[in-house]
Amino acid sequence: MVEIGKTKLDSGWIAARSTEIEKTGVQLTTTHAPTLETSPWMEAVVPGTVLGTLLKNKLIPDPFYGLENEAIIDIADSGREYYTFWFFTTFQCSMSGNQHVDLNFRAINYSAEVYLNGHKKVLSKGMFLRQSIDITDFLQPDGQNLLVVLVHPPDHPGKIPPEGGQGGDHEIGKDVAAHYVEGWDWMTPIRDRNTGIWDEVSVSVTGPVKITDPHLVASFFDHYERVYLHSTVELENRNAWVAECTLNIQVTTELEGNVCLV
Amino acid sequence: EHLQTTHLSIPPGAHIQYTFPPLFFYKPNLWWPNGMGKQSLYNVGITVDVKGYGESDSWKHPFGFRKIESTIDSVTGGRLFKVNGQPIFIRGGNWILSDGLLRLSKKRYKTDIKFHADMNFNMIRCWGGGLAERPEFYHYCDIYGLLVWQEFWITGDVDGRGVPVSNPNGPLDHDLFLLCARDTVKLLRNHPSLALWVGGNEQTPPEDINTALKDNLKLHPYFQMPNQISNSV
Q: From CA A138, how far away is CA A114, in angstroms rounded?
């Protein structure tokens, strides 16, 4: 039985521009898995953005120095496909019996299609949204899994007027995404509008019942002498039968050093 | 008294919400902003064991006991803050984000946020044109006592007050905006440093979004009836 818990997928990713790849996501995660040696695949930065990956491979100058940002083609001129990228990785995960596995994205900008071992899942749009996919039934028996994500830029990346200005032509405001990426009085435009898997990717293993989004609230009385901690959890039973559960909540405080008071 | 066990049966395929009976604390160490006291944190751990299987899932999060209130002062029109009943003079800075290519790292967050604490700040305002900041950002604000004013993704310049005037009704997909907002609230709501959610920068969000945000972010009536809570205990 695999230990329950979360494993981050933050290394071993490779990437390629979508316009340079003919294969589909199903082929890339079954019969034609890419490798770093296969051109045009390159080492990728995940979590990170497309520009972060291009910078790591020295395919663009560093936009933070001098006027180098001017040397990077803006998405308004290149088109969205130019900054639409595949991100590929493999991970080891096999589970037994009554376990369930989720693939978790803490934030992707702006929309994406996920392929795992030939299975496709289209994610919701939105730069600030966690998304989890129950991949229990998609895992390979030998535990070696192939994952590829096709990440699309915001739908309305906008165009930067010659005079610049706060938020460029404001088109980015039509999407649920950060506005600063079109440039501001203190900031030049970000050429890929921060497209990418910009936050944590993880795989989490649980038993039949999963805990989601606990909420902790304190209430105070008698001048903060009498205090109550209220805890609400969401629980999901992914079994096909009733789950008899024991729920525990424990509050400890770390004294100096690593002595714990329970 | 800080360990509680409950037994529960969950039907097959069900997704339920469960609230533990309140845990009582006598004079716990309170969490205070930078410059007002210690940032005492407790470790809250929740586990679920399933009969015939064992431990099925677990979750833990640092938690600070603190009460943050803020009201608009009728005389000055400014917003007055109180923490644990004590008025606090806000000394804060604007925050856009760590890095324009979103190379976000714990090390960078720790350095930047400790720097704000060393500058004797007690609040950081996350501007609406930037990010809903990440749990790692809030973790270090919890540790160094920086209160956080977190704006949603509306800015005056882009939403209806800029030149040219554009997007007077905000983003095209209001449901998507609220889906992202609700998920962001669930991601960040347990951090003691989170002091205030703000609709946007220099602009009120479109009416439907603003109403939904206010409604979603109200404190549940359950927590406002002291006698009910004490009786239930």
A: 12
